[in-house]
Specification:
six-stranded antiparallel β-sheet; 3 helices; 6 strands; about 30% helix; DUF4247; DUF4247 domain-containing protein
Length: about 140
Amino acid sequence: MTPRRHYLIAGLLAFGGVVCLLLAVVVAKNITSHIDDTYQRVELAAGGKNYRCTGDPAQVADDLAAYKSPQARQADRGTEYLRYDDDIVTVGPLGGEPCVVHVEGLNAGYRGGAFVFLGPGFFPGAPSGGAGGSGGGPGGTK
């Protein structure tokens, strides 16, 4: 083969790699973007983002888990907890609303708390403010 042909093949491979990378970025499922696109944002509590949902919190959590599988999932007293790479998503009652999706980043002021009682996959995943005695999720529960 000639050097010109090698350059052509290398160029085509590089182009194919860039196309694959762009497709991966476009196709990658992002739970926070999905929640932002699907639910109406409401201001109910400081820290994180809150979205109004309708129906049973367990069914809403099932819908979110069907969109993107969480690393860990647990329920406690009517609140569903889903742990993703960078976020804890809780679904349950908050501020008089029967169903609220609450999204908080794991790195948002982490102070050493944990959802230890929720089992594997929830450490070090405490929302910010969770270690100081304040509630980290809907309903003020952690």
